[in-house]
């Protein structure tokens, strides 16, 4: 006998339209230490389940209106009841009936007339298995929550490191706090706007938007490896110096790959690498470092290219004053389809007034 305090909490629903069977099974269930809940129809069974979920169901096959097979199908199609173990009870013990029951999701089959020892053994076995399954699912949920929490913590730490790197980068080549933050905000705004376009809605997710705001700040991280005498030169660069400056794309990607070699598939890190490497590629294939063309260029880098040039045109340089917003837009309009993705530019024109300018 399995008469324990834990078993007293376990209730078993018995569905059979023959009252004699309900009485016999109820006595067996009580003797085994469980709580019987006898009902004579599927309608009563549905009401009983709505009131309290059973830990196991003994289900007759031959019943009026809705038979056991049909009710089993209904239970297995409902997320609230699909995991409840179902044992068919019936005088129909043909192989075909048993196979059909198992295909529908039943865990066992008890033929009438009932033997006390057999019923008790099968109840104990399946309830034990059900309890183990519930405990495993509970453990998996706790484990998933713990892992998610740790991953979120790691992601936040990575973001903080990237923010620190961008601040260091900003102070070196610009000296103006907030420039890279402005780049990040504008990339985010443009990405949000593109999300409403059928052309981009599948690729631009909420995660993509969050990532590009951070990753875009590191687009020029490769300039750390370039001497100030070249990077900050007031006059015109020689061809050799220009080649050195252009190498910042590969250098930046390599730096990020080395820094995060064990996390290179992390969406944020991967995007930062793609932006650093490809943000000077042009839509028509005339850019660098690889001369990629069209959609060969990652979307994040195509967005970054638009925001980067828009910011550069609106910013004072050593060799020129900042262009007006109208002049900047006209210059960029001439580059649509050449330097920039024309579909991105179409959205950019509509939302550029919401973008922040540095001047």
* CATH C-level label of the largest domain: Mainly Alpha
List the strand order in the largest sheet. 2-1-3-4-5
Shape: elongated
The count of helical stretches stands at 14
- What gap, in angstroms, lies between the N and C termini? 84 Å
What does this structure look like?
By secondary structure, the protein is of the alpha/beta class. The chain has 2 domains: 7-141, 3-Layer(aba) Sandwich (Rossmann fold), CATH 3.40.50; 174-354, Hypothetical protein af1432 (Orthogonal Bundle). The chain contains 14 helices and 5 strands. The chain has a 5-stranded parallel β-sheet, sandwiched between helices. α6 packs across α12. The protein is elongated, with a radius of gyration of 34 Å. 31% of the residues are buried. Mean pLDDT is 86; it is low at 1-7.
Question: How are the elements arranged and paired?
Answer:
Layout: E1 11-15, H1 19-31, E2 35-39, H2 42-51, E3 56-60, H3 68-76, E4 86-90, H4 95-104, E5 108-111, H5 116-173, H6 179-194, H7 206-215, H8 228-231, H9 239-246, H10 248-259, H11 267-278, H12 299-313, H13 325-335, H14 342-351
Parallel strand pairs: 1-2, 1-3, 3-4, 4-5
Keywords:
single chain; 359 residues; alpha/beta; Rossmann fold; Hypothetical protein af1432; 2 domains; five-stranded parallel beta sheet; 7% strand; elongated; disordered N terminus
């Amino acid at each position: 006998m399995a008469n324990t305090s834990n078993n007293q909490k376990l209730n078993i629903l018995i569905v059979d339209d023959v009252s004699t069977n309900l009485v016999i099974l109820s006595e067996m269930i009580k003797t085994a230490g469980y709580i019987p809940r006898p009902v004579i129809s599927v309608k009563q069974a549905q009401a009983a389940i709505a009131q309290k979920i059973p830990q196991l169901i003994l289900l007759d096959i031959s019943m009026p209106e809705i038979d056991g097979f049909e009710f089993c199908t209904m239970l297995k199609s409902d997320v609230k009841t699909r995991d409840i173990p179902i044992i068919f009870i019936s005088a129909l013990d043909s192989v075909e009936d048993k196979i059909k029951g198992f295909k529908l999701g039943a865990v066992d089959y008890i033929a009438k007339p009932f033997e006390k020892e057999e019923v008790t053994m099968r109840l104990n076995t399946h309830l034990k298995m059900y309890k183990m399954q519930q405990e495993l699912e509970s453990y998996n949920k706790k484990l998933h929550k713990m892992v998610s929490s740790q991953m979120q913590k790691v992601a936040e730490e990575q973001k903080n490191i990237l923010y620190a790197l961008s601040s260091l980068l900003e102070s070196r080549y610009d000296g103006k706090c907030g420039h890279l933050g402005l780049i990040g905000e504008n990339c985010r705004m443009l990405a949000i706007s593109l999300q409403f376009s059928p052309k981009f809605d599948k690729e631009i997710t909420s995660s993509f938007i969050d990532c590009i705001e951070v990753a875009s700040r590191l687009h020029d991280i490769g300039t750390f490896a370039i001497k100030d005498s070249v990077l900050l030169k007031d006059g015109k660069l020689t061809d050799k110096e220009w080649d050195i400056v252009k190498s910042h794309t590969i250098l930046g990607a390599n730096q990020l790959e080395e820094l995060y070699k064990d996390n290179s598939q992390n969406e944020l890190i991967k995007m930062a690498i793609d932006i650093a490497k490809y943000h000077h590629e042009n839509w028509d294939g005339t850019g660098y470092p690889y001369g990629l063309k069209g959609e060969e260029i990652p979307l994040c880098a195509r967005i970054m290219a638009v925001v980067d040039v828009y910011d550069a045109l609106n910013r004072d340089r050593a060799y020129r004053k900042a262009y007006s917003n109208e002049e900047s837009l006209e210059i960029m309009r001439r580059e649509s389809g050449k330097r920039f993705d024309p579909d991105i530019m179409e959205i950019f024109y509509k939302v550029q007034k919401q973008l922040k300018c540095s001047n």
